[in-house]
Amino acid sequence: MISKSFKTILVLLVAFLAVFWEAAFNGIRHWFGAQVDLLPALMVYASLQTGIVTVALLATLGGRWFDKLSANPFGVTVVPLFAAGMLVFLTRDLILRDQTFAQVTLGLAASLFVPLCVLLLLLTTGHEPLFGWGTLWQLIVMGAGGAIATPIIFEIFGWLERVLGYAGPSELSFRPDREIRRGR
């Protein structure tokens, strides 16, 4: 079992590495014509497995890191990431978080919701983003990439929790408060 603060640090470290990977390595962008954004998939994990503080920190720091390394205005990704995280966080008691189908569906939805909200924010604030038929292809690639990445992120964090976490105390075969009657 990993403490909440250590899990928060791990989520933020993975977010930093994911943003760096998206900016530094262009292999997927060259193959498919679009870059897969891993922050919405990571936000799904954070919303289902951690607390509200981690969701807010991931939205704030991850969104700012992403905007700093992209052509977006600084801070425009923070609100859509936080909105996606809150939508999942508020309904997480109703979600079968261990099911791969639920993870894929939420990853797809978040990976489409965040860029569409960023695009809407850019259009309403007077910016002129590149927008055309290629945007539809980019959304398809981003949605499929987020859908595939979400269960992988759950597996990676499950592995990290098994490796870095400690096992809880084992249950004894008898309760210590049990009365043992002896005699005839």
Radius of gyration: 21 Å
Please write the string of helix (H) and strand (E) elements: HHHHHHH
Largest sheet: none
Provide the residue-averaged pLDDT.
Answer: 89
Number of helices: 7
Unreliable residue stretches? none
Structural class: mainly alpha
Estimated share of beta-strand residues: under 5%
Helical proportion, percent range: 55-70%
How far the N terminus sits from the C terminus, by CA atoms, comes to 46 Å
Number of domains: 1
**What spatial form do the alpha-carbon principal axes imply?**
elongated
Beta-strand segment tally:
0
Set down the secondary structure blueprint.
Layout: H1 4-24, H2 27-32, H3 39-49, H4 52-68, H5 78-90, H6 100-124, H7 133-164
Describe the structure.
- The protein is elongated and about 90 Å long.
- It is 68% helix and 0% strand.
- The protein is built from seven helices and no strands.
- With 184 residues, it is an all-alpha fold.
- Helix 3 packs parallel to helix 5 (78-90) and helix 6 packs across helix 7.
- It has one domain (4-164).
Keyword list:
184 residues; mainly alpha; elongated
